[in-house]
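Changelog-adjacent note: as of this version, every example in the card shows the full chain rather than a window. The one below runs 316 residues end to end.
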Amino acid sequence: MKLISAFLLFIFLGTANAQSFPSRPIRLFTGYPPGGSADFLSRVMADELSKELGVAVVVENKPGAGGNIAAELVSKAPADGYTLLNATDKAINIALYKNPGYSDKDFDGVIRVARGPTVIVVHPSSPFKSLKDVVDYAKANPGKLFNASAGFGSAPHLASVLFESVAGVQFTSVQFKGGGPATQSLIAGDTQINFATPPTVMGFVRGGRVRALAVSQPKPSPAVPGVPGAEEAGLPGYNYTFSFGLYVPKGTPREAIRTLHAAGLKGLSKPEVREKIAVQGMDAAPSASPEQFNAEVAAEAPMWTKLVRDSGAKVE
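Full-length structure tokens:
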């Protein structure tokens, strides 16, 4: 009888604990510094999750190694739902780095947050008025255009790698710890071209501090008004978009994942939140379920692996 009572008490406590999630603050890690799309989306999601869940959600920036420092930290955190990662597709860094410190089996997806193209910008004093101008100069002067990159494996890095492949040109890429520092180098005149996520540069575009040549997809993006698509700007066949999503350590209870997903979905369905993301040049793209998000990530992994392999990029 005592054994049965103890068992029932265990079941009751387990159910109570599951129902009480979350009962304390949640940490949301991003692998990039303030000023870029990862930080912007992390703070939007932290705010919405906090509203829906009734606990503080604290963003922690852990920049470095193309986002690997944050990803490895989260992969080794307790699988209890209280540690989140906002990141791009992890297949990119797994293909790019010899030892990223984690594998794709170390995470469970919660929800995709947003998708968008990168924006290709130059200094306003630059002679380049279109992508065709950039391509013509780069072909005549291999390696003489310095590209400010947000770090190996970042969306801007892969956007520039694909650009080089499609256009048949070669940049000299300077790797920074994030999109913010990379764009600042362009504004300072230390570099000549910058592939950037929209939140990083749209304020500078509107303020006239950089000139946007195109978005990294064939047609213009409604989320990036006034900027032509790559086809119109002189590089047909060029198409690159990125996305961010929330992940938890593998083994996190399904109920905690579903609770986080439901809160994220509710936040991303609000018109004011979707507009906030659109103003930054991206589209809210919430997955219908954690299972759908995981299936999408698995389906897209071969494409990212091929892009990295074809680029020839490797980081020891």
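Structural remarks: Residues 8 and 14 are 10 Å apart (CA to CA).
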